[in-house]
Automatic annotation (TrEMBL):
<comment type="similarity">
    <text>Belongs to the prokaryotic molybdopterin-containing oxidoreductase family.</text>
</comment>
<feature type="domain" description="4Fe-4S Mo/W bis-MGD-type">
    <location>
        <begin position="9"/>
        <end position="66"/>
    </location>
</feature>
<keyword id="KW-0408">Iron</keyword>
<dbReference type="Pfam" id="PF04879">
    <property type="entry name" value="Molybdop_Fe4S4"/>
</dbReference>
<dbReference type="InterPro" id="IPR009010">
    <property type="entry name" value="Asp_de-COase-like_dom_sf"/>
</dbReference>
<dbReference type="InterPro" id="IPR050612">
    <property type="entry name" value="Prok_Mopterin_Oxidored"/>
</dbReference>
<dbReference type="InterPro" id="IPR037920">
    <property type="entry name" value="YoaE_C"/>
</dbReference>
<protein>
    <submittedName>
        <fullName>Oxidoreductase</fullName>
    </submittedName>
</protein>
<dbReference type="InterPro" id="IPR006656">
    <property type="entry name" value="Mopterin_OxRdtase"/>
</dbReference>
<keyword id="KW-0479">Metal-binding</keyword>
<dbReference type="InterPro" id="IPR006655">
    <property type="entry name" value="Mopterin_OxRdtase_prok_CS"/>
</dbReference>
<dbReference type="GO" id="GO:0051536">
    <property type="term" value="F:iron-sulfur cluster binding"/>
</dbReference>
<dbReference type="InterPro" id="IPR006657">
    <property type="entry name" value="MoPterin_dinucl-bd_dom"/>
</dbReference>
<dbReference type="InterPro" id="IPR006963">
    <property type="entry name" value="Mopterin_OxRdtase_4Fe-4S_dom"/>
</dbReference>
<dbReference type="Pfam" id="PF01568">
    <property type="entry name" value="Molydop_binding"/>
</dbReference>
<dbReference type="Pfam" id="PF00384">
    <property type="entry name" value="Molybdopterin"/>
</dbReference>
<dbReference type="GO" id="GO:0043546">
    <property type="term" value="F:molybdopterin cofactor binding"/>
</dbReference>
Length: 678
């Protein structure tokens, strides 16, 4: 194995571990054994040496004085943040004793692992953790907070996370960025669009907020939240009515086009315009532009699926490229996710067979409710790669649950996060630069490897190490609980079932650093839908109680308050990561609430005023940004801000913990609020 750790000076290839579609290739510069600079790797075929500002400043996060160095135990009250240094032995012994006692009294399902993708490395996000908790027989977590509704919806249409190869969009003539703030969240797709624009491509952005991405568009189309499926159906109405569909494509590669043709007659532009707030003439203009331009490409974002109707919405938008036959045009089609091209052997990695009997599954979006449940209560939670006290909906309820005196909470993280403040035990985690792991992007087509570049910081340990130590404390005898990281990578990549991996193994990946999925044009492969084709009509959907055809269903009106509230991510944080780093906070300045000038005028709110945003779930205080960037009746904030002293910045006190229509998804963007000047 190349050992970068022992090299004191040099420049080493690496991967960005953050939950971001771009998954950039990095170059880590070391001097005297420490990282001094992080750059993009020009050799990366897609990201080509460009990285975002967030990660350019990552070095400061790695060596931040606030970074955890040793295990801590709580000495004050829950949530008070008083801790004392302890040894790893004491920490592991405490967990072991508490869990043995709990398992004896209440059974292993009283324990809940709680994690997400704070580190996208496969081993550190879904490796030995899964094996260990399966062996222990704990409750399981449905990891639904991010793309669950949308991915489920997309699968009904396309059979899985299969889309356009982004590298081919260099030749695309029309880009539609739909519910995606790509300038902040997928910058290399924007770079490709900008290149194509030099050859005449047009960029259309459909969003509820004219943010950075909206501002770079040739045409920005503001839309009312949660109404995108109506717009998509209106476009289909016109495409069929004006004979702009590709009949031969529909016949060969889809099922249900005749039913769809009939079905969309009801979505005439006038009806649709009333639903989504887009003028009738703009609906015609967009449909005709889409019908006449090839290749055309839709980047389907996560934004519009964080709604009550998010699954059906993505399923609906995903039908559009089939109507104009774009899936058989190079550079045409859509990307919601491309993750299925890079599927690894998750069964081999996670070993669900270690689970003796089926255990309950708890939806992570409902963790507040679950923690306050009196029957079969969760008595202990082990949190890693995630910061639920900030990122989950109805976060006041979550915090109330985390503060329960009888909840034994262990948090493994690099920092004393808002969640760690409630912990009984805090364990220090290594950064990805300290571990070996492999990564797969959900946007581009490359699998990548991370070799450790620096020594573990202080006494911190990787996720895989922590679960090996815990397995040992329990005296578990299964050898697979102690497999080395390299063995885990080998097992995960051994997956002949995925033809796109084409024999990829540890050696080739180590040698090449970036390995592309092999792929035939999408329409030359059998899709993983029941029919093997694009399903405009889906029997499966009908069998689970939905309309088999794409439909518009309004979002839930949860109260009578005047504004729909969209608390989206921001440019300089990554979810809550970096919200505790000085430089990133300075770049972001303050959390703003964008509102329309007509609404502001009625409420006597001026730009820069502090405003209280509230509903029956809670309240927070943000700084008003008055203008025309949102439609009347809509307010938008950006960023998951940390608990800063004296401030009330957490937007998730306001978000509903209703489940989306599909996949148990989150509905962060479907809540209503009141706004008033403080
Ligand atoms: N800088 C930065 N990058 C990130 C992240 C971050 O926090 N910061 N987070 C990462 C993660 S985990 C994810 S999942 C992705 C998410 O990145 P995206 O896929 O871009 O999704 P969001 O940013 O959630 O929302 C995208 C846009 O949807 C809009 N929107 C909300 N509701 C609607 C609607 O009903 N209709 C339409 N048309 N638009 C709507 C919002 O205004 C926003 O501009 O980004 C990743 N990258
Ligand atoms: N209002 C609102 N809320 C949202 C969203 C939104 O758009 N609006 N977006 C939602 C989405 S899409 C997502 S994906 C979630 C994301 O929410 P989270 O998954 O909680 O993501 P982060 O806030 O980045 O927290 C990740 C944590 O993992 C830690 N970490 C990083 N690497 C490691 C490691 O190797 N080991 C361990 N043990 N810990 C590590 C980091 O330090 C950080 O504290 O937030 C959701 N919440
Ligand atoms: S956060 Fe995204 S854009 Fe920034 S370096 Fe990481 S992968 Fe690249
Ligand atoms: Mo996400």
């Amino acid at each position: 194995m190349q050992d970068f750790i022992n090299e004191m000076d040099g420049v080493f290839p690496s991967v960005c571990s953050l939950d971001c579609p771009d998954q950039c290739g990095l170059l880590v510069h070391k001097k005297d054994g420490k990282i001094v600079k992080i750059d993009g790797d020009p050799a990366h075929p897609v990201t080509k040496g460009n990285i975002c500002n967030k990660v350019r400043h990552m070095t400061e996060r790695i060596y931040d004085e606030k970074r955890l160095q040793y295990p801590l135990k709580r000495v004050g009250k829950k949530g008070e943040g008083k801790f004392e240094r302890i040894s790893w032995e004491e920490a592991i012994e405490t967990i072991h004793l508490r869990w043995v006692e709990l398992i004896e009294k209440e059974g292993p399902e009283a324990i809940l692992p709680y994690s997400f993708y704070g580190n996208m490395g496969k081993l550190n996000s879904e490796g030995l953790d899964r094996r260990f908790f399966h062996r222990l027989g704990t409750s399981r977590l449905a990891r639904t907070i991010c793309n669950s509704a949308g991915s489920t919806g997309y699968r009904y249409t396309m059979g899985g996370g299969f889309g356009t190869d982004p590298e081919e969009t260099i030749d695309t003539k029309l880009f539609i960025f739909w519910g995606v703030n790509a300038v902040s969240t997928n910058m290399h797709q924007v770079a490709l669009a900008q290149k194509a624009r030099k050859n005449g491509a047009k960029i259309v952005v459909i969003d509820v907020h004219k943010n950075q991405t909206g501002r770079l568009a040739d045409w920005f189309i503001p839309i009312l939240p949660g109404t995108d499926s109506a717009l998509a159906l209106g476009l289909m109405h016109i495409l069929f009515a004006e004979n702009m569909v590709d009949e031969s494509f529909l016949e060969t590669y889809t099922v249900g086009s005749e039913e769809l043709r009939e079905h969309v007659k009801q979505y005439d532009p006038r009806t649709v315009s009333e639903i989504c707030g887009v003028p009738v003439e703009d609906i015609y203009k967009l449909a005709r532009m889409y019908g006449a331009t090839s290749p055309s490409f839709i980047r389907i974002g996560n934004g519009m699926q964080h709604h009550d109707n998010g699954g059906m919405c993505i399923r609906t938008v995903a039908c559009l490229p089939a109507l104009t036959g774009q899936w058989s045009v190079k550079g045409g089609g859509a990307i919601k996710s491309n993750s299925s091209f890079l599927d690894h052997n998750s069964e081999a990695l996670e070993r669900p067979d270690l689970l003796e009997k089926e255990t309950r599954i708890i939806n992570m979006n409902l963790i507040g409710k679950a923690l306050l449940e009196k029957e079969n209560p969760i008595r202990s939670m082990f949190v890693y790669n995630c910061n639920p006290a900030l990122v989950t909906p109805e976060v006041n309820k979550v915090r109330q649950g985390l503060a329960r005196e009888d909840l034994f909470l262990v948090v493994h993280d690099l920092f004393l996060t808002e969640t760690a403040m409630y912990a009984d035990l805090v364990l220090p985690a290594t950064s990805s630069f300290e571990n070996e792991d492999f990564y797969t992007s959900y946007w581009h087509h490359y699998t990548q490897i991370q070799k450790p570049v620096i020594e573990a910081y202080g006494e911190s340990k990787s996720n895989t190490d922590v679960f090996r130590i815990l397995a040992n404390a329990f005296g578990f005898e299964e050898e697979c609980l102690y497999d080395s990281d390299v063995d885990l990578i080998r097992q995960a990549l051994d997956y002949p079932e995925n033809p796109h991996l084409d024999g990829l193994n540890y050696e080739t990946l180590s040698e090449k650093q970036y390995v592309k999925a092999t792929r035939k044009p999408l329409m030359e492969t059998k899709l993983q839908t029941p029919s093997g084709k694009i399903e405009l009509y889906s029997e499966t959907l009908a069998s689970v109680g939905f309309s088999p055809l794409p439909t518009y269903t309004p979002i839930v009106k949860d109260n009578e308050l005047p504004f729909l509230f969209i608390p989206a991510p921001n440019h300089n944080f990554l979810n809550s990561t970096f919200s505790n780093n000085e430089k990133h906070i300075r770049l972001e300045k303050v959390p703003r609430l964008h509102l329309n000038s007509s609404d502001a005028e009625k409420l006597a709110i001026e730009d820069g005023d502090k405003v209280r945003v509230s509903n029956e779930r809670g309240e927070c205080e943000l700084v008003a940004a008055v203008g025309e960037n949102v439609l009347p009746g809509v307010v938008v904030s950006q960023g998951l801000w940390a608990d800063l002293p004296g401030e009330k910045y957490f937007v998730n006190v306001l978000t509903p913990d209703r489940e989306a229509d599909m996949g148990g998804g989150a509905t962060f963007f479907s809540g209503r609020v009141n706004v008033e000047k403080v």
